[in-house]
Amino acid sequence: MSLSPSSPFSILAVAGRFRIRSGYLHMLDLLRALAAAGHEVALVCRSLPSDLLPAHMPFPVLAWHDIAARRPFGGFSAALDFCRNRRTNLLHVHGGAHGPWVEHLLAASGLPVVFTPHMEGGLLERWESRRLQSLSRRVIALSEFRREALVNHCRVPREKIRVVLPGLDLASRPEKPPELARRFPVIGVVAPLDKDRGQDVFLHAARSLLDAGGDMQFVLAGDGPRENSLRRLAATLGIEKRVIFVTRLLNYADAISSLDIFLRPAMTGRFAYSVIEAMALGKPVISTPAGDVPELVADAVTGLIVPKGDPSVLVAAVRDLLSDPERARRMGAAGRARVAERFNADRMLAETLAVYHEALAPPPH
Questions:
Q1: 32, 24, 90: which is closest to 355 by C-alpha?
Q2: 183 and 136 within one domain
């Protein structure tokens, strides 16, 4: 099966349990770009909390049970009929935690498969990624760091992997430069409230900044199992009135827009989509080097890269930017320019379509 370069695709995107996480926000950016370019797109998720799904999606979004319910006791047959009725010519699997139904669907459909692992889970997702890549003609890595992780930890053949950097639509993200001259500069972290995200380090840094005479507001935005423990830590440090918790996010951009300085104190190498989002909005970034960050942030140009786990280095970096608002604005502007050059939606779309054409090409004899 092959398509001419100008022919539109009919793509069924397949995801696990939908959550507001970096990988799934990237997936939605890609699907919007595909739909805007005239390709037929549908998204099927293992489970779909309707209150977490962003409104006004320009493509159908279904949970697995929505399809299976059309034919009681025949969910896989119904899914195959769904693909045939839409004349689907490619399946694009995103993330992990799908369960066995996805493997059955991929095998039974006979359609070419492209797989984008998010690598935000633990051993279970790594094991599932190994299985899914074996059913895929191409695997997309969202950075060079992730390509090496796929080769070394998930045993994906290097020749099967294509690196496609995330891309954002700057037209839908107006620049919001930092306003450090205002009375209460706003400094925050936007990330799931999970372990190893570094929010505890951030709270200790916030305490030190206030002790040094700073007059500022702090934001922790995200959802996850550590919310209560982080609230308790803020209370123990005596800063609960200076820390705003923003939960039930539908995206990252709204929360990041309210910040003057964006922090990512992560301890491990999760996908740093929030860093790209912050740069797109013109925010100076302070981040640890965990994961893909060195590929995203130009140190001392678009932000500052600091060591992990040390509140004092976060304090020093924040005070550095607070003392030089013009430098912070230059960093924010340079970050937005970097997104326009390297992480734009047009490039992401073109490179993804090239991968799709590779997946559709007949295998060499």
A1: 90
A2: no
The pTM (predicted TM-score) of the whole model is 0.92
Residue 332 sits in the same domain as residue 186: yes
**Is the model's pLDDT at 73 over the cut of 50?**
no
Determine the structural domain holding residue 76 and report its residue range.
10-167+344-360
Summarize the confidence of residues 193-220 as an average pLDDT. 95
Q: 108 and 34 in one domain?
A: yes
Task: Looking at the structure, tell me whether residues 315 and 352 fall in a common domain.
Answer: no
Query: Long-range contacts made by residues 35-41, C-beta under 8 angstroms, separation at least 24?
Result: 35/59, 37/349, 38/8, 39/8, 39/9, 39/10, 39/11, 40/8, 40/9, 40/10, 40/11, 40/86, 40/87, 41/11, 41/13
Residue partners of 106: CB distance under 8 A and separation at least 6: 91, 93, 113, 132, 135, 136
- How far apart CA 143 and CA 146 sit, in angstroms, is 5
1 pLDDT band, cuts 50/70/90, is low
Q: Which two tokens stand for residue 58?
A: 């320009």
